[in-house]
Please model this.
Amino acid sequence: MTTPTPVLAAGAVLWRPAASGEGVEIALVHRPKYDDWSHPKGKLKSGETAEECALREILEETGQACSLGARLPTARYLAHGRPKEVTYWAARALGGVFTPDHEVDALVWLPPAEARERLTQPRDRELLDALLTATAH
Model:
């Protein structure tokens, strides 16, 4: 029996400096199909690198251009009975405008503690912790 080929995806923990000048804010997206709050991510298209996919998905889901920073842990889990691998980066938001659609109907920017509470999946909390470690000065 062969193991199914994993679905490959990429995304990021998107952040920006807080308006207060103290700390950072984290972007979370709401997906109505799953009624969950998560970091922006999506499946690789044919011929696309993980970096290209992450940049495209962040732009599509949040409206934000960004700069990829430190690599974060790769998430591995089963999605609909099939293995999935999501490569993540820390990504600094560079600006843009969010437009809700059928895939992502809401975007929020939250301080890390509030983002941690809002995230649906424990693995996404681990990625938030990894971002905070990677961006600590």
User: Anything to note?
Assistant: The chain has a mean pLDDT of 95. The chain is about 25% helix and 45% strand. Residues 7-135 form a domain with the Nucleoside Triphosphate Pyrophosphohydrolase fold (CATH 3.90.79.10).
